[in-house]
Fold Lipoprotein.
Amino acid sequence: MKKLALTFILATGLAGAIHAGDALICTSSSTGACAGKQYCCYSGSNSDGDKFCKQLGCVRGGTSSCPTAANVKSCGTRNK
């Protein structure tokens, strides 16, 4: 039983580490905090993310996972 619990903890922890969060792809017509940014990262539901990123000025071009590369410009919960 302990082995099964340890496996579950490790598996769910790894899944959380792989999922870096959700993002909207911002178009070149984005303004405000998202002007010149490629992504708007958020946590929570997709509809909450849409509202959050729209308030920041992101004009939605699609969806993605939140990138973690240093050369990616983003606004939202992962400002870079």
Remarks:
- The chain has one domain: 20-76.
- Residues 4-20 have pLDDT under 50 and may be disordered.
- The longest helix spans residues 2-18.
- Residues 20-76 form one domain.
